[in-house]
Specification:
This protein has 184 residues and is of the alpha+beta class. It contains 4 helices and 6 strands; from the N terminus they run βαβββαββαα. Helix 2 links the parallel strand 4 and strand 5. Helix 1 packs across helix 3. The relative contact order is 0.19.
């Protein structure tokens, strides 16, 4: 299902170094474990698996002066394609060339790997990395991440194991008992 896709479109005007853009996304994926994580199942029990490396391909297409319904259809195709949580990647990138110096970068992440706040962090890091690469400046010195998502999940699980799970579970069961459906 595409119900948990988190799409984003960025218009890029001016010269674009596609190799630098790919390298910036490669660095982003290397830095953030959640972008290299897959979710597999063994004997009916799901668990996460952080891959040591992962490749996210920047798919390119020339769309020219695509407008109106045709552009809307292309965007729908990008946003509605489901992710395979077991194989990944959980980040999809399409670069649509509209004109000689005009592009539309389509990003789509599964919500299990990202949320609105973390998307803004990733975009900032990617822009800084890209700008450094195209200007010949040293890459930004980003502090090592001391906490990854799996660390947070472990901390949250420990809190739940300490007895908070029953209170939370009771609350959410009461909230959702009459109306549980996938959010639009």
């Amino acid at each position: 299902s595409a119900a948990y896709n988190t799409p984003m479109a960025v218009r890029i005007n001016g010269a674009l170094d596609k190799q630098a853009l790919q390298a910036a996304f490669d660095a982003l994926v290397a830095r953030h474990e959640s972008l290299r994580t897959v979710f597999v199942e063994e004997q009916g029990v799901p668990y996460l698996k952080v891959l040591p490396s992962a490749q996210v391909t920047l798919t390119e297409a020339f769309i020219g002066a695509l407008h109106g319904k045709a552009l809307e259809q292309r965007l729908q195709e990008h946003t509605q394609q489901p992710f395979d949580l077991a194989t990944g990647p959980l980040l999809r990138l399409d670069l649509l060339q509209v004109g000689p110096q005009e592009h539309l970068l389509l990003l789509n992440l599964h919500h299990i790997a990202s949320d609105g706040w973390s998307m803004s962090v990733m975009v900032r890091e990617c822009i800084a990395s890209y700008n450094a690469r195209v200007s010949g400046q040293p890459l930004p010195a980003l502090a090592p991440l001391t906490v990854q998502y799996a660390d947070y999940a472990t901390w949250q699980r420990e809190r739940l194991d300490e007895g908070q799970m029953h209170a939370q579970l009771g609350y959410w069961r009461a909230q959702l008992e009459d109306d549980f459906s996938v959010l639009e």
